[in-house]
Amino acid sequence: MKYFAALVVFAYLYAVQASVYLEENFDDDTWEKNWVYSKHPGKEFGKFVRTAGKFFSDEENKGIQTSEDARFYALSRKFAPFSTEGKDLVVQFTVKHEQNIDCGGGYVKVFDCSLNSEEMHGDSPYRLMFGPDICGPGTKKVHVIINHNEKNVLINKDIRCKDDVYTHAYTLIVRPDNTYEVQIDGEKVESGELEADWDLLPPKKIKDPEASKPEDWDDRATIPDPEDSKPEDWDRPEHIPDPDATKPDDWDDEMDGEWEPPMIDNPEYKGEWKPKQIDNPAYKGSWVHPEIDNPEYSPVPDLYKQPEICGIGFDLWQVKSGTIFDHVLITDDVEYAQKAIAGLKDQQEGEYIQGDTY
User: Per-residue pLDDT tens for 59-106?
Assistant: First the structure.
């Protein structure tokens, strides 16, 4: 029985009040009737298989696993459309990279109703992209990409993802007050304001195009000392003939040319002379370009709002397959999402015990 099965009665009653737009736990093979593989030409797509994996806490707690190495994956599901106006949006799912992934995505994309599942590919328009992405030691991040005015905009913050082989829950919450929160395993790892953490809008301020640094503005903190002068004995050659070198006995001036001793570094060489620096009495500090209100900026009070959402999908590339996705949830209720992963810690502990043998 899955880790949330003990909450079935609660979840049923609670769902009457909460709006749960999609909850997919891959309980049986009927998932294949609801999820659609892309048939977009030009790429060799991999298949998902339903499994609990090589090690698990509960063998009946199964998700769908990428099963072929070096493949693109394109699988999506549509559901009844909704708008996020005036309410929270929660996107949540679990990821288990039990293959100890070296390079590949573990994220989801959220779509509007324009999605054609059988034609889904990397350039298909989406509304949100969220989840972990790993490639080598340099990329271990949580993507949070928002589409605004048909432009995909990346978050300005670096959010590190989990890189072990156990199950982890990723949760994105977007609120009507234009704030957001990212959680991993139910714990907040990042939060802030949409306008501050994405370049969704033009900047409020811009540099005044009419302003320029005055010609007499001196921003040199130090200057050469005009009273300083180069010592008379300063100039020395950088290299000198080696005084210990002697002409070889078998050297023939007629055959070998005139012998010259090899050159060595001059121990008395002092380099290029430069006058010492002193404080600049005319120093005015760094010039700061004055700013003005940006005429192209206009606040958007409902920046959070997605007018239409009705699809979610996995659009991935993986070098080494084996990632298991499960417990996909889209709702407007944060508490419901928290209850949905209430048994995650127990699941992880069971995986730790079994995982040690792999």
Answer: 999 999 999 999 999 999 999 999 999 999 999 999 999 999 999 999
Confidence of residue 9 (pLDDT cuts 50, 70, 90): very low
What are 124-144's pLDDT values in tens digits? 999 999 999 999 999 999 999
d(CA 319, CA 70): 4
Please choose, from the candidates 26, 50, 101, 75, the residue with its C-alpha nearest in 3D space to the C-alpha of residue 323: 101
As a whole number of angstroms, the distance between CA 108 and CA 75 comes to 10
Asked if 58 and 350 count as a contact pair (C-beta separation under 8 A), the reply is yes
Evaluate whether 251 touches 259 at the Cβ level (below 8 Å): yes
* Angle value at C-alpha 109, between 103 and 110, nearest 5 degrees: 170
Q: What torsion, rounded to 10 degrees, do the Cα atoms 281, 282, 284, 290 define? A: 180
- Predicted TM-score (pTM) of this structure: 0.80
Residue count of the chain, please give it.
Answer: 358
Task: Give 154-165 pLDDT, tens digit per residue.
Answer: 999 999 999 999
> What are the structure tokens assigned to 250, written together?
């078998």
Buried b (16+ CB within 10 A) or exposed e, 165-197: bbbbbbbbbbbbebbbbbbbbeeeebeeebeeb
Q: Is residue 120 within 8 Å of residue 74, measured between CB atoms?
A: yes
The answer to whether the beta carbons of residues 330 and 81 sit under 8 Å apart is no
Q: What percent of the chain is predicted at pLDDT more than 70?
A: 94
- In angstroms, the Cα distances linking 296 to 148, 195, 202, 254 are 16, 15, 7, 83
SS3 call for 225: coil
Single out the residue of 36, 45, 51 nearest to residue 68, CA to CA: 45
Strand 139-148 to strand 151-154: parallel, antiparallel, or no bridges (unpaired)? antiparallel
For the chain, counts of helices (H) and of strands (E): 6, 22
Q: 16 pLDDT exceeds 90?
A: no
